[in-house]
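pasting for ref. prot 1 ->
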Amino acid sequence: MIVKIPYKPRHPKVHALLESYRFITVVAHRRFGKTVLAVNHLIKGAVRCHRRAGRFGYIAPFLNQAKMIAWDYLRYYTAPIPGIKVNASELSVTLPNGSMIRIFGADNPDALRGGYFDIVVLDEVAQMKPEVWHEIIRPALADRKGSAVFIGTPKGQNIFKELFDRGLKGDDPEWTSVMYRADETGVIEERELASLKAEMSDNAFRQEFLCDFSAESDDILIPIDLVSVAVKRQYVERDIAYAPVVIGVDVARFGDDATVFFKRQGLVAFEPVVIRKLDNMAVADRLVSFIAENRPDAVFVDAGAGAGVIDRVRQLGCTVTEVAFGGRALSEKYRNRRAEMWIEMAAWLRSGGQIPDHATLKADLSAPTYLFDTSGKMVLESKEKIKERLGRSPDLADALALTFAAPVGKSDNRVERVEYNPLDMF
């Protein structure tokens, strides 16, 4: 028997992601359709469940809130299923295969204890006590290796932001994070979005519709709306043919950091190459191949952790320039070279720069804060402090910033393809 549920996914790609990762954080703007999407994800999981007594849960910060926003949806979308059993007192529906979907409120954590879940959705987890996830829900997923979806709209720096950053780190194949802004999804018509922007405060609009976790901060160097605009820009090859090709290389400092190769030509930054858990010799070999493939006019490498890579690449016949992030800036307006490069990158974005639609890159770009020291020089938040605050390092944005380390002219003598045998060096 085929049962048709009256649901047409507004965002089919989101459902594919939900089914591909065990833990996923979905940051989405208001009116995105988060609750409908979450409820139908639970229904699909329950229908497909072949285990005995499958358990699926939707959790909102408060039980009354959960009932108001999700209960009607759950009843509506499961109504066509023959033999469905509805228990209005405990806000649950039970499918013919024995799977139960139940709605909970995080304000009554005792109701969540002692059970298990195959799939659980935590809606607006930022409004829940962190122990609800860490001490109750996470253990309840252990027995059956259940999955969790965290879904909501930014509300500053809290557990939701921590979970989002964890998914962006990319070092755990079970975790991922995605973000959907109103100026990117097309869910809200442009005219209506413009009206909302005119009526709301700037911070409120950026938080609720542009998914800006730092909306309440006035010290963010690159605002998220500037990043969103940069993603949408499009150029053709002739638009950048005049410009030099520059590569920035940020070498991993610690085990969970990433090494990133970033190629930029004029106003276009290309998809980055992200490498994890390779030693310096292997990274150097990869970089030589990347240089040979792209024949850049200049290659700038972070000297802080890249000394071994720099030496090896030079041994293999490539010319690279080492850049010390903490070194002296070319202009006296900045405390160090890193602040200067980031300012140049911000100016490039404002002047028409295009970046790939890469979730981690977009988050990295809007992560650092800035201030001015007693001498009036601009100071960018250090990489170490950002990692302490976010739980990850802004490696992708730092690699792109390195492409602005110094002025580069287009040359007819680009780095030639290097043919070598690694054994020749020993």
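and prot 2 ->
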Amino acid sequence: MTTQKILRIDTSARRAGSVSRELTDTIVARFPGAEVVTRDLADSPLPHINEGFVTVTKGAGDDSLSDAQREMIALSDTLIDELKAADTIVIGLPVYNFGVPSALKAWVDLVARAGVTFRYSEAGPEGLLTGKRVIIAMASGGTEANSPIDFATPYLRHVLGFMGMTDVQLVHADRLALDPEGTLKSAQSQVAELAA
């Protein structure tokens, strides 16, 4: 039997007291013996894409690349390789001001690359990262998951699906400011129901 490979992505700016980190800890622990690669976007912030990166991904030739462009493409390639190698991706998603943390958006912008993680065909866009399971661990103070003011989880589900990752499960601790004890108990129950 092959070893399960997990990519864990933590995005909370907080370390102590971070509920999304606590949830990713608990979720990953449900896969004993798995090989886990951790990408902590608070410990190692990613650069935001810029004109140089966009120019390269639109098809500029290698000969014309600057050192900065080469570095950003190499980083993008590394992040994409982590995704390709993983069977399961566990993403910690604290909701900041109704949306995803900017650190997570920077990661998305570096991994969503035409011709690499998705492509355009006559039938429309096609995701190239198929056959993967994603577990999102959402934490929020007052934004209820899947409510009209939750812009974080629908966005993340959509962009993951766009890249071919359609097996997405959500664990949510979503009203921590209103009922912290009940919310955490509910989230732990959701984790316990996840199939390993």
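The beta strands are 5-10, 35-40, 88-94, 118-121, 124-127, 133-139, 167-173.
The longest strand covers residues 88-94.
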